[in-house]
Amino acid sequence: QVQLQESGPGLVKPSQTLSLTCTVSGGSITTNYYYWTWIRQPPGKGLEWMGAITGSGATYYRPSLKSRTSISRDTSKNQFTLELRSVTPEDTAVYYCARGFGLYEYNDRGQGTQVTVSS
């Protein structure tokens, strides 16, 4: 059974870059038929799909976040990462990494990590 675990700082200052890592066990991130995804949930709001990377390394981003977001991977560590640049307090959310069979699906996800943007 696949397991995903997010890691990264819980507090980021405005205008800085948020960086999160997802460590995957029980499955390889190079498997072609999965999408490895980042989603978030701001306080009081629903889940928001941010972007994904495929087993072959292709990336997809939410249009409204595309200019600030990068998703990459380290296949030697079976990890994929999220970078969100120029953060504002509106980026405060619980961030999840997930695995899905489709681009906007997240069939398995980590427990999430709270990130607060504040000075």
Overall description:
The protein is mainly β and 119 residues long. 0% of the residues lie in helices and 50% in strands. The protein has strands at residues 3-7, 11-12, 18-25, 35-41, 48-54, 59-61, 69-74, 79-84, 93-100, 108-109, 113-117. Strands 2, 4, 5, 6, 9, 10 and 11 form a 7-stranded mixed beta sheet that branches. A hairpin with a 7-residue loop joins strand 9 and strand 10 (108-109). The radius of gyration is 13 Å and the shape is globular. It starts with a strand and ends with a strand.
Work out the radius of gyration. 13 Å
Give the helix proportion (percent range): under 10%
What class would the helix/strand composition place it in?
mainly beta
Q: Which band does the percent of strand residues land in?
A: over 45%
Count helical runs: 0
- Give the mean pLDDT: 96
Task: Give the H and E element order.
Answer: EEEEEEEEEEE
Uncertain runs are none
Global outline: globular
The main pleated sheet reads as:
7 strands, mixed
Number of strands: 11
Question: SSE layout and pairings?
Answer:
Elements (H helix, E strand, L loop, with lengths): L2 E5 L3 E2 L5 E8 L9 E7 L6 E7 L4 E3 L7 E6 L4 E6 L8 E8 L7 E2 L3 E5 L2
Parallel strand pairs: 2-11
Antiparallel strand pairs: 1-3, 3-8, 4-5, 4-9, 5-6, 7-8, 9-10, 9-11
